[in-house]
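# step 3/5: fold
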Amino acid sequence: MHHRDPHEGPLYPARPARRPPHRRLRHALGADVSYDISLYLQVDTGDPEPIDYCAAEIGNYTTNVAGMWHDALGHRLADLHGRRAGDCSDALTRAVHDMQQRPDHYQAMNPRNGWGDYEGALDYLARLRIACLAHPAAEIHISH
């Protein structure tokens, strides 16, 4: 069994819970073109302050398909920001199921500019659902 020296630092470095600088700049310029979603957990390491640990990184996907997600969820995907993952699992399960059952409905919403499509939107939402089921205590962070 490998024993770590506690002075080596964390085995998995904490990832910051705030937007990266390029995201903040794009937001300030009004260029919100994609969602970037991660799930974070606060971990008590025994230090005075807990660390934010990135439990899952869903990645980013274009906002051009936001209408599909809104239709499937009944609200904006961005409304999940700051919510506990376990509290969103049922809604995400229903939304993924709806998108799978009505592909023609959602394919008709494919963006004309070619940025994003039904298959990508469904995959992104399904990956978020899986991460929420795997990490129910995590908090959803969405930057766009």
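# step 4/5: annotate
The longest helix spans residues 85-101.
# step 5/5: archive (pending)
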